[in-house]
Fold this protein.
Amino acid sequence: MSEYKEIKGIKVQDLGADPPAPFAGQVWYNNSSGDLKYFAIQSAAWSTGGDVGTARYYPGSAGTQTAGLIFGGTTGASPFMTNETEEYNGSSWTAGGNLGTARRELAGAGTQTAALGFGGYVQPPTGGFSNSTEEYNGSSWTAGGNLGTARTKLAGDGTQTAALAFGGNVGPQTGATEEYDGSSWTTGGTLSVVREALAGCGTQTAGLAFGGEQIPTSATEEYNGTSWTTGGALNTGKDAGAGAGTQTAALSIGGQTPSGSTGITEKYDGTSWTATATMNTARAFLGGAGIQTAAIAVTGEGPPLTAATEEYDGGGPATLIVGTD
């Protein structure tokens, strides 16, 4: 049998402790623990999570990969608009408290136990563009302060007491931004690129807007709490996608291009976007939540309408024990 030295041309290092900064592919023997170890860089990947109870598209979403939330949306069957809320524990979805107003194309912010849902579209003839805001406490929704401008297909980010609403459709498309303080909305800086069906993430004072329906666009903008400035463009222009993460560590998930729905995912470092693992199920009009290295993508339309959840692992370094003494 060939030895490691014959194959690689070097001996396995015999060390009293793990090296402080191993390189990819490095193999060593830790004589203190009796372990033969190998250092690898794990690739980013999407994997299958638990299906939602009610398949839908264009829901609001919030939370994290292990404590996610979706609410509202369209089921594709009469009465079309839903007020259903579901909570994710990292493996399965369970029913939560219903929204006060059934609607689609709304935005979300916050956490599973302190969420915010705002704007959207309510079923005609009693509805239309909505300015309604609702706050979730982990079990039920209550009314919050109304948006200054009723709109649909908007994006949002932040927390329940410090949220940001931007873009959308008010009849024409809009670049208007509003800031929420836990009880009322006030006017913020206007997006440079007016658009709807955009995605966003971050906080009220460090927000990120990307993609959207203007062809679709690859435009990215960064918010500093007062105004928007241009950031690095997406490699693939798309609308009706989802976002996760922060202004300097964001994830753009799925959406649609002129060719149709896509599973394309890109990550942002505060300056530029780079391609990462593609979703297993291409979809648009989906929900998304989490951080850049641990996100979820949920529901949406390919077509067809899907109940699927996927979990994103951003990869990174890992020491693998390959044997023991």
